[in-house]
Amino acid sequence: MIRVLLIFSILALLLSLPQAWASDTPQEARHELMEGVGDAAKPVGKMLKGEQEFDAAVAMESFQTWSHAAGNFGDLFPEGSDSGYDTEAKETIWTDRDGFNAKLETFADAVDAAIEANPQGSRSAEDSDGPGIQGLQGLPRGLPGRRRGLIRGIAPGTMRSIIRWLSSGLLGAVLLFWFLTRPVLLSPGDLPDHEADPANGELVFYAGGCASCHGDGLGGGLEMNSDFGTFRVPNISPDQLTGIGAWTTLEFVNAMMRGVSPGGNHYYPAFPYTSYARMKVEDVIDLKAYVDSLAPVSHSVAAHELHFPWNLRRGIGLWKKRYFQQQAILEITSDDPSFARGRYLVEGPGHCAECHTPRDRFGGLITSQWLAGGPNPDGEGKVPNITPHADGLESWTKADIAYFLESGFLPDFDMVGGSMVEVQENMAHLPDSDRQAIAVYLKTIPAL
């Protein structure tokens, strides 16, 4: 029976997509609609469970509300938008599909029988602005159908077709959503036969600036405020309970390169796996070996506090389909043999674009403005343009860039400041050839 309620809850969520009633923002309209359709679903669920006596009027009120919602599908969520709807329910809720359909058939028979027994009570006068079904006057006034004056009679025999459509078409939509948002993982066979090298892992650690966000001991806890809410940086020390010490190599690689947790949930892209996806698997394996060699830190970090609908993690699967890519961002080449290494460091472990490229309203990088600067994630000022534009690095030589990454000195002998201090200090740990390669890449990309 609980499965039935779960399915009804999911159906209610998917069906709550018609045009908004008077609300100040689309978010408020969606939330209000979800509450209304959810209220309509509750009595039906109780009838199916046998906790409430069958009431034809209430049943028709609910199904008419859902039918109207389905007829206006897309008004609030046009093509390409992210509804944000999500569920943590396991796939096993779909295993009793036959039983669910059987209950709906029985329920439909009862509704149709009630309509046939009292046909006059199931129709409303054409000039009526409210429900015409007798007995609806006692229903809550907050129900969507009553508020809009949309409840009309249902002809005998139509309830079965409505339920069949709900249980097949929309259940199919739920399954399609579940399929489209599923995590895509690497398998054990995707891992190379590679002996982990902690020494190389240390260089990768500095290239990625791991300690800049996760702290010197990697115990996490840093809070990052954004328009989506507050993200809290997790513990990635090798602690077995509060860190990642119990993770397998494959779980670590999937987290870094696919943005998926060991439990199979999407990570939010505040964790820059969208850049790490372009790393070499061998480097990721080496990074784990280095992190595992560090001292564990026992520190539990609180969960993120995000606004609706961003707190519904499953929708990140749709976000990934739009923004996640493993290919190089810019289709450019260079005769300089160090260009490829520079591209790898900047676009991959260095994840420079995560700060130096502006984002759209959904938090995705605007790649047409690659490295052209953007709002400061810390909330004040702007992250500078690092393309060879007049507003960027046009006047800098390759040697200037490499020396800046090594020493923190700008060409005018000023010193680096702000959050870039830690980035520069991390880059100083890399070999000079890597800093030179970064400089080659930054002077080769288009000036924006």
Structural class: mainly alpha
Q: Helical region count?
A: 17
How would you write the strand order of the largest sheet? 1-2-3
Termini distance? 59 Å
The figure for the number of domains is 3
For the sheet with most strands, the description reads: 3 strands, antiparallel
Regions with little confidence, pLDDT below 50 for 5+ residues: 1-23, 70-74, 76-95, 120-156
Radius of gyration: 28 Å
| Mean of all residue-level pLDDT scores | 75
**What fraction, in percent, of the residue positions are helical?**
40-55%
Q: Note the run of SSEs as H and E.
A: HHHHHHHHEEHHHEHHHEEHHH
Record field, number of beta strands? 5
- How much of the polypeptide forms β-strand, as a percent range? under 5%
Task: Describe the protein's architecture and organization.
- It is a single chain.
- With about 450 residues, the protein is mainly α.
- It contains 17 helices and 5 strands.
- The chain has 3 domains: about 1-180, no CATH class; about 185-305, Cytochrome c-like domain (Cytochrome Bc1 Complex, Chain D, domain 2); about 330-448, Cytochrome Bc1 Complex, Chain D, domain 2, CATH 1.10.760.
- The chain is about 45% helix and about 5% strand.
- The strands form 2 sheets. The chain has a 3-stranded antiparallel beta sheet, with no helix packed on it. The chain has a two-stranded antiparallel sheet with strand order 4-5.
- Strand 4 and strand 5 (about 380-385) form a beta hairpin.
- The longest helix has 24 residues, at about 25-50.
- The model is unreliable at about 1-25, about 70-75, about 75-95 and about 120-155 (pLDDT under 50).
